[in-house]
Structure prediction request, 658 residues.
Amino acid sequence: MPVTLKDIARQTGVSVSTVSRVLSGDKAISVQTQKNVRKAAKKMGYRVNTVARSLKMNRTYTVGFVCPEITNEFFMKIAKGVEQELKQSGYSVIICTSNENVEDEARSLRILREKCVDGMIIIPCSNEGKHIKELCGDSCPVVLADRLVDDLKTDAVLVNNEAASFALVDGLIKKGKKRIAFLGGNELITSAKERFSGYLKALKENNITVEPDLIRFGDFYLQSGYDIMKDFCEMENPPKEFFISNYFMQVGAERYLQEHQKNKEDELTIVGFDNMDASPLFRFTERTAVQPMVAIGTEAARLLRRRIEGDKESFPLISRFDVDWNVNN
Amino acid sequence: MPVTLKDIARQTGVSVSTVSRVLSGDKAISVQTQKNVRKAAKKMGYRVNTVARSLKMNRTYTVGFVCPEITNEFFMKIAKGVEQELKQSGYSVIICTSNENVEDEARSLRILREKCVDGMIIIPCSNEGKHIKELCGDSCPVVLADRLVDDLKTDAVLVNNEAASFALVDGLIKKGKKRIAFLGGNELITSAKERFSGYLKALKENNITVEPDLIRFGDFYLQSGYDIMKDFCEMENPPKEFFISNYFMQVGAERYLQEHQKNKEDELTIVGFDNMDASPLFRFTERTAVQPMVAIGTEAARLLRRRIEGDKESFPLISRFDVDWNVNN
DNA sequence: AAAGTTTATGCAATCGTTTGCATAAAGTGA
DNA sequence: TCACTTTATGCAAACGATTGCATAAACTTT
Prediction:
């Protein structure tokens, strides 16, 4: 059985309230009593029961982090920022996954509410926001990360997707490439949409006609990158330049190319989003947009903490980070 | 303010106990009352306060998952197994990172204890187990994953590291390769040690003399793979075959080779641990050991749940998964 | 109709904290 | 010495749920 305030009180001959006051640093307690209590607490191995404290204080110092997939390096970089930042202020993070599925997402939110988290950071898996509005709200602030959602007025931390994909595609065009295929993410997701707009904008500003056959949407996962690259390569007149909307689709696409013995002599060029540890090893990937992933998490966490602490200023706040694009190989 | 049992009781004219009984499915309550209560609960949007429940029941249905680094795909695959499995039985998972640092690990354990988690799954960052023994114990079961720790009698879920690295190295030798360099992980960590034993065993069984110059230990992270590969390549008589102890060191090593314009003609061959999504894209990596990462997590979670529910059978239980080794490219 | 049984519900304690208010003791000032 | 502050501490309620025990009402049984 764990030691409680009561045990210390009994041991030192003072009341529970006095013990509580000493341990929470109340200066009104006499120095002698403080010493006694602290000594006893230490000797007996006391550790607060934050469950009881939370009940009384109506604050759990726990926040929820909901993302579509926990093994996703991109999401976990964001999670890292969140965890790092919040740990400093004494919060813990419960991680839930939605498995790219709105019902699971809603289930996670419900559980988190029942656990009385002080707030949540959500990377939504769709553009559906109803369940979030329903389950969260004033007593449980929400910050979205990486993606927005329809019909939901809340804070969000995003990146400048359109500008980055514009720059990448524009860069290719400026090098004389005109037939650039587009491998998109899940069309329902704002980041996918924004990256597509950037692509379109680059074509438009350079007076290039959009070829609908060169535009395909997947789901941001490996297999869809593989499949779409396959389809493109099997066209009668295959494109040689590609914009791929995220890292995982790049892995899939590069794997297709690898398996089919393409090599540099084919002069294929890929640009796209996300630079991960293994990106420099990709054969055809020339430039990638480098999102400040950890910083997104850190920023979302800071914002959430402010909201938890009652700051209502300029709500809802949508902040966007700029994206770097670097030469890869 | 959230709705409480009291509110429902007031609304329906019964006592709090009756409401509690209805909502926890007690059949002794009259059908009519059940209906009334359920209806009111639904209409008022009642949601249990698990903080209060936890305090009373002395069970939080929350477990801690402590790992060295949250952005590590390998650890997160294990975490996925854990989360998936435990979610089914109504548990949530708090993720903490130790940043490969014993003090941080101890801090995390302390916080988790204060949050009254029902148990923990730990991927320890060193071979130090004192702080775990101190902070956990009977009232808070612990299952280790992937690595063991000195002086700590507790359950663990591991893989058969030695057998796998033996097989990989032996395979190279059987193909006539005799000078196989070893790029090790953090020597303090059991998995690194076991992989090293497998390497030594393969040399020994094939009567190959160990060349100390061909053995180097890093820390399981990218940079160390890069640095050690560099050192090897700069030897006057560089080895051409390599055993690399995990994925991240492989990425580092491959990046070094890539940057230094090595290509297939050099006939370099890498074998080693972990097969990730991007592994097939690595130029020199020929075979990799495929650990059942998600299954490790699932198994650890099952074991932990059993311990939480009071099963003391065959404690401590160390289970080891077999490892596959597959052709890579 | 009395005694016994069953059914449905309420009372009140409890989990471990925190905190407003009361109060006793000690100290201060004239 | 008396009134008045100040200082140190305790009492008890509260947070929101669960549950053993008590009990009133409704049925059985003979």
Remarks:
- DSSP finds twelve helices and twelve strands in chain A.
- The CA atoms of residues 79 and 297 of chain A lie 6 Å apart.
- The longest helix of chain A spans residues 73-88.
